[in-house]
Amino acid sequence: MSVKQPVSRRPYLLRAMHEWISDSEQTPHVVVDAEQPQVDVPRQYVKDGKIILNVSHSATSGLVIGNEWLEFSARFAGVTRAVRLPVRAVLGIYARETGQGMIFNESDLTPDPPGGKPPAGPAPEESKRPHLKVVK
Q: Could you tell me where the DSSP H helices lie in 1-136?
């Protein structure tokens, strides 16, 4: 019997934050690295390699936050456009009204090592920093 490799936690965190922001009657926005491969967004709205997208239920149609892809249709300058991007390209999610949210880091893309224990040896200084951050 083979053991299935755990999936990335980023899509689960993204869905949870989207639900929390929506339940709080606020407007969820995602920050996307538009330079990642397979990111299909309106390029005219990309600034410094990033795009901010309103992913509220009222601004999107057919919103799906899957384990691999974030997909929806939305209007940009009055024109309906399909948006599709890999979840790995989402850098963070926040509420427009309060700025509260979460910034993702690379460790959210990979599962924890087997047994949930980090490799033996001294931990690098960077790993002592918190992994979750609040965007203000």
A: 10-23
Token couple for 128:
């002592």
Tell me phi and psi for residue 26, to 5 degrees: -120, 180
Q: Is residue 37 part of a domain?
A: yes
The pTM score is 0.76
CB half-sphere exposure, 79, CA atoms < 13 A: 6
Residue 17 belongs to some domain of the structure: yes
Domain count, the chain: 1
Beta-strand ranges (E) seen in 8-135 are 28-33, 50-54, 60-65, 69-76, 79-86, 90-95, 101-103
Quick check: is 123 in a domain? no
> Number of C-alpha atoms within 13 angstroms, CB side, residue 97?
8
Would you state the pLDDT for residue 30?
98
Q: How confident is the model at residue 70 (pLDDT cuts 50, 70, 90)?
A: very high
